[in-house]
Write a structure and sequence with these properties.
Elements lengths: L1 E10 L2 E8 L9 E6 L5 H13 L13 H7 L9 E12 L2 E14 L2 E10 L2 E2 L1 H5 L1 H8 L9 E3 L9 H16 L1 H20 L7 H49 L2 H5 L1 H26 L9 H40 L4 H22 L9 H44 L4 H103 L8 E4 L6 E4 L5 E2 L6 H19 L5 E4 L7 H10 L8 E5 L6 H7 L3 E10 L4 E6 L4 H4 L1
Parallel strand pairs: 3-13, 3-14, 8-12, 12-13
Antiparallel strand pairs: 1-2, 1-4, 4-5, 5-6, 6-7, 9-10, 10-11, 14-15
Helix pairs in contact: 5-14, 6-13, 7-13, 9-12, 10-11, 10-12, 13-14
């Protein structure tokens, strides 16, 4: 699992919306270093990770005994103008060779009734409501909440884990969670509860008299129910079915004489009247259409001829207008050529061409003008021939086809109207049909009432049969209950003993591995290489015992404060390795109260190797100077938490604490 980004929305000291990129820049640079002074928001940062991942199950530093809604309300930035806050966490998880991207969005809003939280999970950019609804279970696949304290912890508070009592509790809880022994314990408790319940059971009195009475009642009820079903079937067969057949015959006669049309006579008359009116309206529309330019569609050939004649007359007019101008131009052109001493053959040829052209134009200009169309008429004629006539033709065809459909509808309506029979023909059949229908309705009411009575008695019979079955089953079970109870208690006791043996075997098997991992981690961190030669964990009470050079037990109280803190960190480190889960590690105040030697060992031997992704939240007196220089090659990203006392808010800025702040 890799944490890619965390975003604060008015959370705690973090005002507004602030995002922090957490993705390691390279495999050999797993550390994200975040510097801040005390009270600047480091612990709030760690709490945000817990809250974003685990919600109500998060083990936050300052929640205490607060209810979840009250805790959320207190997490809203006090200076925010809004009553809303939230946390977003983006991470990646690889399963079965496939990497998926997830985004957790946890927002809440303060209201009169507390805080209302909204939680959303996005997988590869798509919302997954089912994941959000079952996140308390689903998060165990990514980051189990019961081992989160092995990966997310405060360096100043871990020293307590080195004490006899606290180390036993930590080791015991970790082993229980890592090995899934909580299910074994729960099964043992359930078996004990089951045994107590079985021992408290007492033998019931005989119910033979009650069973006999119940059997007699069931037989009587069955007889009454059978008689009622026969009566109902007779009613259906001899009366209702007979009347239904008679009704079918009358309705067939009614249909043949046109009764259906008679029933619809008002609608048919209205339909015919409407159809006649629609035809009249269509005729009026055709007349209005014909009053316009529509008739010109019939004269298209004449209009084409008129347009052709108009173009010719236009050419004649232009020839008359150009004749005098061309004569002057030709004379000037020939004169110019002669002045330029042009070749006489060319001049004569050009003069012949000019004379012929003028002669042709003068001949064209003398032709008679017949139409003499004005520009406005010419424009209208062009518009008609270039589209208007086609449009008018299409519209005329549409109107004519629509009118044909209207006349067809009118004819159909007229035929239906003429086929409506007279009232005298259908009156007798109508009366007979109504009488049969009334009789059928009355019989069906009787049939339905009998059906309801049958259903009621059927339910009563089923209830009594079920009661009798329970009595008989109880009577049969009672005979062997004492033997069954004894056998169950015997086997339950054996199962509990087996579970206890299984539990001890599993713990002993894995405790040896955890001992080795914790010892390796502690020896790697210690400045005194020979101080601790081995350690052991009691499988019964999880007590941790250290052994020195002489192979004698060494009390944790004999260790220095720094050595105890390193022991606590080694416990967390070893248990984290034992979990077998590649999870990010986040440490608040990692160097704590360690002296310079122990600090250097922690910087060089633990922090770069604690996980594939390590978030360090450091004060200005911890990772600075030589420690920062030694840790530098492993650092991929740096941030600083800048607290503004006037605004009462913290802003996240890139880059580590300045030399002045870290001095």
């Amino acid at each position: 699992m890799i944490l890619d980004e965390i975003t604060f929305h008015n959370f705690g000291l973090y005002e507004g919306t602030q995002s922090v990129e957490l993705t390691p820049t390279a495999p050999d640079k797993p550390i994200v270093l975040i510097g801040g002074l005390n009270g600047g928001g480091k612990t709030t940062f760690l709490d945000a990770l817990q809250l974003g991942l685990f919600g109500p199950h998060a083990k936050s530093s300052n929640r205490g005994s607060l209810a979840y809604q009250e805790y959320l309300s207190r997490c809203i930035h006090c200076g925010a103008k809004t009553s809303e806050a939230g946390i977003e966490i983006r991470f990646r998880h690889t399963a079965q060779g496939k990497e998926d991207s997830y985004k957790l969005r946890r927002f809440w809003k303060r209201s009169g009734n507390g805080c209302k939280e909204q939680f959303e999970v996005l997988k590869n950019g798509e919302s997954e409501p089912s994941l959000a609804d079952n996140w308390a279970t689903q998060v165990e696949e990514f980051f189990p909440a019961n081992i989160a304290h092995l990966f997310l912890f405060d360096g100043e508070q871990v020293e307590a884990y080195a004490s006899q009592q606290d180390s036993s509790a930590l080791i015991g809880a970790a082993i229980q969670n890592l090995l899934g022994l909580d299910m074994v314990d729960q099964l043992e408790k359930d078996l004990q509860v089951y045994e107590r319940r079985k021992r408290s059971e007492s033998k019931d009195d005989s119910r033979h008299t009650e069973i006999t009475a119940a059997q007699d009642n069931v037989r009587d009820l069955r007889r009454r129910l059978d008689a009622l079903k026969q009566e109902r079937a007779s009613l259906q067969t001899h009366r209702i079915d007979k009347q239904q057949s008679a009704l079918s015959k009358v309705e067939e006669k009614y249909r043949k004489v046109g009764g259906t049309l008679y029933d619809q006579r008002e609608a048919i008359e209205k339909k015919w009247s409407d159809a006649v009116q629609i035809v009249k309206d269509g005729e009026n529309a055709l007349r209005d259409f014909a009053a316009g330019a529509a008739p010109l569609v019939l004269t298209r050939t004449l209009l084409d001829s008129a347009e052709s004649r108009d173009r010719h007359e236009e050419e004649c007019r232009r020839a008359r207008e150009l004749s005098a101008a061309l004569k002057d131009r030709d004379k000037a052109a020939l004169k110019h050529l002669r002045c330029q001493s042009a070749d006489k053959t060319i001049v004569d040829a050009l003069k012949s061409f000019f004379d012929a052209d003028r002669s042709e134009r003068e001949k064209l200009g003398k032709e008679e003008t017949v139409l003499d169309i004005t520009p406005e008429v010419r424009s209208d004629l062009h518009a008609l021939l270039r589209g208007d006539l086609d449009k008018l033709a299409r519209e005329a065809d549409k109107l004519l086809r629509l009118q044909d459909m209207r006349r067809s509808d009118e004819e159909q309506a007229r035929i239906e109207h003429e086929n409506i029979p007279n009232a005298d023909i259908v009156e007798k059949l109508t009366q007979e049909r109504n009488e049969i229908r009334a009789d059928i309705a009355e019989l069906e009411v009787m049939h339905a009432a009998m059906g309801q009575d049958i259903d009621r008695q059927q339910r009563e019979l089923e209830r009594r049969e079920q009661s009798l079955a329970r009595m008989l089953a109880a009577d049969i079970k009672e005979k062997g209950r004492r033997d069954d109870r004894s056998r169950i208690l015997h086997h339950s006791s054996k199962v509990r003993r087996t579970l206890g043996a299984f539990r001890r075997a599993v713990i002993e098997r894995h405790v040896r591995r955890i001992e080795q991992l914790v010892l390796e981690s502690y020896q790697q961190l210690l400045r005194k290489s020979g101080l601790i030669t081995r350690l052991s964990i009691d499988p019964e009470n999880y007590a941790l015992t250290l052994y020195g050079r002489d192979d004698q037990p060494l009390s944790a109280e004999r260790l220095s404060a720094g050595e105890r803190q390193l022991l606590a960190i080694a416990l967390l480190w070893g248990l984290a390795k034992a979990s077998g889960r590649p999870l990010p590690t986040a440490i608040d105040t990692p160097l704590g109260r360690l002296d310079s030697g122990h600090r250097m060992h922690l910087v060089e031997r633990y922090l770069p190797f604690a996980s594939h992704q390590v978030l360090l939240l450091s004060t200005d007196e911890e990772i600075a100077g030589e420690y920062l220089e030694r840790l530098g090659p492993w650092i991929g990203r740096t941030y600083q938490l800048a607290y503004d006392d006037a605004a009462g808010a913290t802003r996240v800025a890139t880059g580590y604490l300045s030399s002045k702040a870290a001095a």
